[in-house]
Amino acid sequence: MNKLYKALLVAGVTISGTTAATAADVEYFVGAATGYQTDTIKGDIRKDSEDMSWQLRAGVLINEQHRITGTFGYMEDKFNIADTKYKQEQYSWLVSYDYLVPMNKNANFFIGLTAGANDNKVAGKASTDFVYGGQAGLQYKWNEHLSSDLGYRYLEQDYSKNGINIENSQQVYLTLDYTF
Questions:
Q1: pLDDT at 81
Q2: Is 9 helix (H, G, I), strand (E, B) or coil?
Q3: For the chain, percent helix, then strand, then coil, each to nearest 5?
Q4: Cβ(3)–Cβ(115) under 8 Å?
Q5: b/e string for 164-176 if b means 16 or more Cβ within 10 A?
Q6: Which terminus, N or C, of the chain has the lesser number of Cβ atoms within 10 Å?
Q7: Rounded CA gap, 2 and 120, in Å?
Q8: 8 Å CB contact between 27 and 60
Q9: Do the Cβ atoms of 166 and 41 come closer than 8 Å?
Q10: End-to-end alpha carbon distance in the chain
């Protein structure tokens, strides 16, 4: 849990410093995402858990090139190994920074870093652990208020309970965001 507090403190300081440092153009957005996620599970269970992931997002766009996003995500997978039924549930609380590179009037390439916490429950054993990684993708602006991201995110994680280890999560996702 100590890692979680450190991650949240770093994220809070980063957001506060970035927001205070810029007195320029700031826009706020909210949105949702869906995607496909795989988690690499090793140890007593060896499987790549996979299923749909769902996310809610909110954040700020600063000077049209810097984006800070808070994301809450959920993924669930049920699977069988040797006649034993397992269920993995994952709740994610993430803070991301993206640098947006304009490609044309309506499209941006983005690349960024993510840190936060994943609350995993596998085979009845739960643990909240620090996660970190990065993402890249394309953003398309449909109009003044609506945009979508098509992205890929990789997260390292340290879940380890009763011989079960989750090493990483990988997501391909599509968002729909509304900018105020």
A1: 78
A2: helix
A3: 10, 75, 15
A4: no
A5: bbbeebbbebebe
A6: C
A7: 17
A8: yes
A9: yes
A10: 35
Counting residues of the chain whose pLDDT is more than 90, the rounded percentage is 64
| C-alpha span between 75 and 95 (Å, rounded) | 17
Averaged over 171-178, what is the pLDDT?
98
Average pLDDT in the chain? 88
Name the nearest CA neighbour of 136 among 100, 169, 105, 107. 100
Paired with 72 in beta bridges are 56, 93
Largest CA distance in the chain: 60
Distance separating alpha carbons of residues 120 and 126, to the nearest angstrom: 6
In tens, the pLDDT along 62-71 reads 999 999 999 9
Which H or E run contains 88? strand 84-102
What's the rounded Cα separation, in Å, for the pair 12 and 38?
28
State both tokens at 44: 């007593």
The residue whose two tokens read 């995110």 is: 153
Q: Give the whole-angstrom CA distance, residue 131 versus residue 154.
A: 10
